[in-house]
Amino acid sequence: MTTTKFLVLTSRNPADPSDVLLEIPAPGAFASIDAVDRARAAQQGWLLGGAAARSAALGSAADAIETAGAELTALAVREVGKPLTEARAEVARTVAIWRYYAQAPYEPVGAVHETAVGAGLLLTRRRPHGVAGLITPWNFPFAIPSWKAAPALAAGNAVVLKPAPEATACAVHLAEVVQRALPEGVFTVLPGGAAEGNALVSSADVVSFTGSTAVGRAVARRGAARGIPVQAEMGGLNAAVVLPDADIETAAAHIATAIAGYAGQKCTATSRVIAVGTALKPLREALSEALRALPVGDPADAATVSGPLIDQHARDRVCESWHGLCALAGGTVPDGPGWFAAPTLVEKVPSGHRLLREEVFGPVAALLPAENLDHAARITNSVPYGLVTSVHTADLSTALGGLDRLDTGMIRINAPSTGVDFHLPFGGAKASSHGPREQGRAALEFYTSSRTYTLTPP
C-alpha cells in the first residue's frame, strides 16, 4: 500500500518565524489544468464585453486595492518582511499600475494599409492569446502580479496566477480584492509549488515568469516546445559605477539603499560597486559609513530600511557569501529571532568568487577598483547577467558616451540601481531575461498576437 504525499504550503513571518500566517495543502497539477479551463471559458465573455467594460473593471480594481491599502500593506510586512515604508510604496504603485492599464483597452490595436493592386483593405489587428499563466516571486507580492495581470486583462485575456509559496497569503488577498471588480473566472489565484507551476506552463496560452535563472530557463524551454509565447525575468548581478567627479556622499547614499533596502531582496539590487580611479578611497569610507548607518530591524517599524531575509536558507546563503572576506561594513548576524543579516560591504574579493558570478539575493556587495571607464565597463559586463547598471558622475557627456559599452537592459544615471518605472519596458540582457519586455506598452504587445486581414470586394 502506498501513501500519496501532498505538499503543504507554509508561510511564516520572516521577522518572527514562530508566527505562521498560512498552512494549506497544495492543490496539485490537476487544479492548474482545471483553473485554466475555467479561465478559458470566461475569457470570451470578457473580451466580447468590449473596451469600456474592461476599462471600467480595471479602474474599479484599482479603487478596490486603494481602499484595502492598509490591510495589504500590513500583510506584506508580516508575510514577506517588507519594511513598512517600502510596503506602502508598493501598494501605491500597485494602484497606479491598475489605473495605468485601465486606459489600455482604448488604445489602437492595429492599422490599415493600402493594397498592392486594386480595391480593398489590408488590416493588422492584435488579439489576445486566451489564458495568461503568471508565475510570480515573493519579493513584490502585489506589484509583480499586477504588472503582469493588468495588461493581460486589458488586452482581453483571462489570467491564472501561481504565486511563490512564501507569498501565498498576499496573493490570495490581492485576488479577493481584485475579484470584486472582475467577472467570475477572469482572475484566478492558484497556490502551489513546482507541480502547479509546471502544469500551468503546460496548459496556458501565454506565460510570464519572474524568478530564478534555472527555473526561468526551464519554463522557456517548455513554452518553446509548445509553441507559446514566454517571457522570463531571472535576476541580476548589478553594478554601480562611480566616477571620480561624482558627488561621493550622494552616490554612497544611493548605493547603500540599493544594496541593503529590503535586505537586498530585489533583482535590481546593487551587488557590485565599481570605483573608478581616485573615487575608490572616498567611496570606500562613505559607503561603509552609509551602510553601517542604515536601520536594520523590525519591518513594521517605519524607520527600518533593511528587514529580515525571507527564510533561514536565504540567510545561510548570504552568510556563506561573505565568509572569509574582508568586510568594510557588516559581515555579522544580529542576535534575536528572525532571519536578519547586517548590510555588508566586502573588498579584495578573489576573481571567480561567487559574489562576482552569482546572484546572492541579500544585503551584500563587493567593492571593486577600476582604472578608468573602459575598465569599469569590462568589469560590469564580465558576469552572466545584464539587468541594470547605475552610473554616478557629474559629467553627463561622459556617462552618455559610456552607455553603449554596457551589456545591460536598463541604465540609471545618478540614481540607485533599484526602482522601476512601470510605464516603461522592463528587462535585461544575457541571463537576466528571456523573451519580450515587461511593463508599459511592451506588455500589451506581449499579451497579444498580430493578425493580418485582407478585405477585397466581391
Radius of gyration (CA) equals 23 Å
If you consult CATH, what is the topology of the largest domain?
Answer: Aldehyde Dehydrogenase, Chain A, domain 1
Assigned CATH architecture of the largest domain: 3-Layer(aba) Sandwich
Our measurement of the CA-to-CA distance between the termini, rounded to an integer number of angstroms, reads 70 Å
Average pLDDT, to the nearest integer? 96
Number of helices: 14
Structural class: alpha/beta
Give me the CATH superfamily of the largest domain: Aldehyde Dehydrogenase, Chain A, domain 1
What characterizes the major β-sheet? 7 strands, mixed
Describe the protein's architecture and organization:
It is a single chain. The chain is of the alpha/beta class and about 450 residues long. The chain has 2 domains: about 10-235 and about 430-455, Aldehyde Dehydrogenase, Chain A, domain 1; about 240-420, 3-Layer(aba) Sandwich (Aldehyde Dehydrogenase, Chain A, domain 2). Helices cover about 40% and strands about 20% of the residues. It contains 14 helices and 20 strands. It has helices spanning about 30-50, 50-65, 70-80, 85-100, 145-155, 170-180, 195-200, 215-225, 250-260, 280-295, 310-320, 375-380, 395-400, 440-445; strands at about 10-15, 15-25, 110-115, 120-130, 130-135, 160-165, 185-190, 205-210, 230-235, 240, 270-275, 325-330, 345, 365-370, 385, 390, 410-415, 430, 435, 450-455. The strands form 5 sheets. Strands 12-13-14-11-10-16-17 form a 7-stranded mixed β-sheet, sandwiched between helices. Strands 7-6-5-8-9-19 form a 6-stranded mixed β-sheet, with helices on both faces. Strand 3 (about 110-115) and strand 4 form a beta hairpin. The radius of gyration is 23 Å and the shape is globular. The termini are far apart.
